[in-house]
Amino acid sequence: MEGILPLYKPKGLTSHDCVFKLRKILRMKRIGHTGTLDPEVDGVLPICLGRATKVAEYITDAGKTYVGEVMIGFTTTTEDATGETVEENLVKKSFSRAEILAVLAELSGEITQTPPMFSAVKVNGKRLYEYARQGLEVERPSRRVTIYSIELLDEREQFEGELIRFRFQVSCSKGTYIRTLAVMIGEKLGYPAHMSQLTRIRSASFTLDDCLTFSDIEELVETGAIVEALQPIETALYYLPKYQINDKLGEKVKNGAVLPIPEPFLNEKGPIVLEEVDGTALAIYEAHPQKEGLMKPKKVLKI
Predict the structure, then answer these.
(1) pLDDT per residue over 100-116, tens digit each?
(2) Candidates 3.40.710.10, 3.90.45.10, 3.30.2350.10, 3.40.50.620; CATH matching 3-62+204-236
């Protein structure tokens, strides 16, 4: 059994918990998730089964879309609703819709974020959350991320009250922390803030409409229809350039041959998918680091 299983991750489970549970339901070991979702975040979590684990990183690297809620008035240790209050400053003014939209516009495009202490980013070989649980704070590397779009999901013209909350939808690059984005929204409005709720509604090409719950999966396993519910490996590679090859060259590709870069892709910086006439992905190639004009396999997908 191989392919991609778009899972609806419920709140209360880590991504690893989901993999552990699926190993029991599907009775197979070769399963991997495609990027950590915090326990209190629900939504789309594509799961790779069997040979599809080879393409997990390409789902992780693709864009994500979230619907979240920011609360203005206090911030927490975790930057979300699960943490302890760090700073409270109840809102003493109202904000117009135009002011909120202006802040969201400022946070569009390429921005710099510092990962929260309660995150899986590694510093000196340890996860940040390991330091945080020991009450330690370490220097964290900032990163550049891209906010492709951010939209206010609230019809109000005026936002007021001691605690102000509103929902938004954001499409972003790999590595973006929506918790941190919520804090940044508050900072630009002049108040402490945190992310009070978050749902991932898209990961790569997979949306909530594609997702199956654990109950759905258990039912499909019982009826023997689980294989038909899996998405092909190729769906994970939708955004990569494709080069179609014949059977003769295909045999060389399966054996990991170094090949000349096809002329249309000479200026291509990223990976290229080599596929059969029927669209089956054979391998993912990349420019050879030492041999100019040649490419080598990064992942051989079909043997």
Answers:
(1) 999 999 999 999 998 77
(2) 3.30.2350.10
Active site residue 210: no
Q: Which amino acid is at 188?
A: K
Of the candidates 17, 38, 80, 209, the residue annotated as catalytic is 38
154-213: pLDDT as tens digits: 999 999 999 999 999 999 999 899 999 999 999 999 999 999 999 999 999 999 999 999
What 3-state DSSP class applies to 291?
coil
The residues that bridge with 74 in the sheet, in sequence order, are: 88
How far, in Å, CA of 133 to CA of 131, rounded? Answer: 6
d(CA 140, CA 81): 22
For residue 214, the model assigns a pLDDT of 98
Instruction: Provide the b/e sequence for 253-285 (b: ≥16 CB within 10 Å).
Output: bbeeeebebbeebeebeebbbbbbeeeebbbbb
- Cα separation of 261 and 36, whole Å? 34
Q: Which architecture does CATH list for 240-300?
A: Roll (2.30)
CA distance 4 to 206: 10
HSE-up (13 A, CA, CB side) for residue 66: 24
Q: How confident is the model at residue 121 (pLDDT cuts 50, 70, 90)?
A: low
Q: What angle do CA 21, 26, 28 make, to 5 degrees?
A: 95
In the predicted model, is pLDDT for residue 119 greater than 70? no
C-beta separation of 229 from 47 below 8 A: no
DSSP 3-state of 117: coil
- DSSP H helical segments within the chain, as ranges? 15-26, 56-61, 97-106, 128-133, 178-189, 214-223, 247-254
Quote the CA–CA distance of 91 and 248 in Å, as a whole number. Answer: 69
Q: What is the dihedral of CA 181, 113, 239, 258, to 10 degrees?
A: -160
